[in-house]
Give the backbone structure.
Amino acid sequence: MLLYDIIKDMPVFEKFSEREKRIFSNMDHSFLAFNKGDRIITEGGMFSSLYVIIKGNVLITKTDFQAPIGRLGAGQIFGEMSFLSDKPRYSNVIAAERVFVLKMDKSSFHNVDPVIKEKFINYLIELLIRRLDGMNDILLSMANFARGHLLP
């Protein structure tokens, strides 16, 4: 199966033209497979690769927190914060089952066609905004819950 057939309907590529999807699919990418329990990203690590899940699910965890804080599946992206900012990894990413990912290194991304690069970065910004909005909703719910239980 061609990479184009795998990515063509993924949300990250919805604003790409068919031509741009084909150009992206012909770029140099790394395909990696991980088994259940494999650590893909380690919290605090300084690597800046970005990953697109092709198949399977991953768990997002924090070192000092026992339960997973999130789950991502096929078509979703992780590693975007370090990819954009060069800051240490914020969380761990662990394969919840057999997982196949497309790994994109920052160094190879610099050689991407500027139009494709801009669309990809715009998607990452939108993704981060959606995730921040989700976190804000959770914090608001927690604050409302605390107020309801702490006030007489």
